[in-house]
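User: Fold this, then the next.

Assistant: Folding the first:
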Amino acid sequence: MAAGMIFHIARFATHDGPGIRTTVFLKGCPLECWWCHNPESLSPNPQAAWNESRCIRCGNCETLCPTGARDVVGQRVTAGEVMALIERDVPFYEESGGGVTFSGGEPLMQHEFLENLLVLCGRAGIHRAVDTSGYAPRKVFTRIAGLTDLFLYDLKLMNLSEHRKYTGVDNERILSNLEYLASSKLPVRVRIPLIPGINDAPGNLEAAGAFLRKLGLAQVDLLPYHNRMASKYARIGETCRMPPGISSGDGALEEAERILSSCGLTVTIGGNPGEREN
């Protein structure tokens, strides 16, 4: 059975799709967003990690860490092993209308592994959501789309050069794949992470609102930013590029909501996709 690389499985998640969900985080991402909340997801390979608060300076780093201060982020697992964990929570899915969400990283980077998991979930009658940046070849995207019950789709920046500056890739493929989902009437929920000083300018929000309205996607979730993930970067020996101490304050969120609403969109702050269907 196909194997893939994951770095975390979160049970009883409530913000990654409708109902109570199991969120499977796959490792590897083609984007390098300055504000990434899961920096340990960017590399497709296992990474050494260090938790300073657990370190007792015993000098045994090269052998076996007695406190768990040193560990490895990322493990190779089979689709069957992941399904065994997912199926433990089936009673909660049935009670709440939940299911499984595949996130990352960018889950479409491991599209063959993802496809296997989606097929197995479909056979088990489990609702399937894919949380994606949309950055994948159309051939891959259409194949996965046929097996997915809901896309959670990030829309970051509308300007191509700014998108490339802050994420490392341009946005042509991302916008094109979103157009495909909309034109195909496939279930999609657009989410905009509101990043102070990067994509919260009125011009970007107005362009995003006009684009979504043109596609007939009338609902959007605004996701607040915080930089509590700085310790995650330190844990894997990396440095966060976002300035410390900034976040999306209530005023910024309300102004973004006003701008997007003026474009004819219905806006949810925080974005719980279980509240309604597109």
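Now the next one, as you asked:
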Amino acid sequence: MAGLAHSAGQVWPAFALVTGLVLVGVVAEGEGLFAAAGSRLARVPAGGLGVYALALGLVAIVTAVLNLDTSVVFLTPVLLHLARVRGLDEAPFLYGAVTMSNAASLYLPGSNLTNLIVLHGRHASGATFLAHMWSAALVSTLVTAVVLAVLFRRELRSRSTEGTDEPTRARLGIGAAAIAIATVLVLATSAPALPVLATGIVAALAARVSRTQIASVVDVRVLGGLFALAVLLGGVGRWWHGPVSLIDSVGRWPTAGIAALATVLVNNLPAAVLLTPHAPVHGRALLLGLNLGPNLAVTGSLSAFLWLRIARSLGASPSVVRYSQIGIVLVPVSLAASLLV
């Protein structure tokens, strides 16, 4: 029981912080911030490759600031709309939305739940985390963009037409203010979970966000199931030290590889708790595997489940097989490049 209690103590701040960031994202989406960004991209006088690069850049920024799950939920529709308006193949934008969200989730603690789980007990601010991880995060972002551009080079060669739909205007109000406050809290404080959650709740109440809007983004059953699984595996990791002993006995590269494979088997959130009953020897390598590994299969992260549901609801045809075909190429390259820096 003590092991489960310690495991729950490690997990709940991560879920609280991400819930707060998702609520902030719901408010920002209601004010048209994401749609306005997509509308501007649709009017950029560039070819398919240029528009794609800018779209991936938008995904990376939103992921870094507001978490990868927020990015997937709100930007998958934006990128699909962008592709349709510009007359481009949907596939690069569809798969780019989720793979770039995973790849760009290394910048700040709140960018990915796994960052917070692995960091538990270290009392490091977001600025400190960024100072340690920015080079690997930047490399994973750039390498992912390049690999995706190469894999989808034929689809992106098609002629891109400039968007002709009515421009979407954003209202700079509660959502923009909440984003700014949450970003400062993540960067400046070592325990931002409750303050960011409070920011999200206050913003949602002030913006009169409905339960239906929140339920369309946050699936309580999925989150609850992942929380329970993470706590359970965390308890197992504290009772049976086999997994953590294994990664403590190997170097950086094997640590990242083991973490990446663990995400596919049990999802990256439970894997993070299972492998960190105490601070790991190669913490940064472990994070790289936990954050980039989910691009191998849709079982790897919560963001992939959200992506599948949203893409299907928009009439797209996401394929779990093609997802892994892309990941088999993408993950080894991005993981190796990030480890090298």
